[in-house]
Amino acid sequence: MNAIRERDGEFFAPEHRQPQDWNRLAAFKLAVVFLQICARYCRGTTADPRIAGMGPTADALFDFAAEVKAGRIF
Q1: What pLDDT is attached to residue 45?
Q2: How crowded is residue 64: how many other Cβ atoms within 10 Å of its Cβ?
């Protein structure tokens, strides 16, 4: 557990942050937001038909985030 904390501490330390880290985080967070919105539609919490297409968009955003993480984009 201490190794994880030390590694996470290094990642979040300002001197260790790189622009790519922010790109990765932004792509992943955007995918999560789309997935959460789609989940609300699937549960019936909202009935807006525009939200129905967000599931495939969320999947594509997760794929994009994986590409960013792998260093193939940005």
Answers
A1: 92
A2: 15
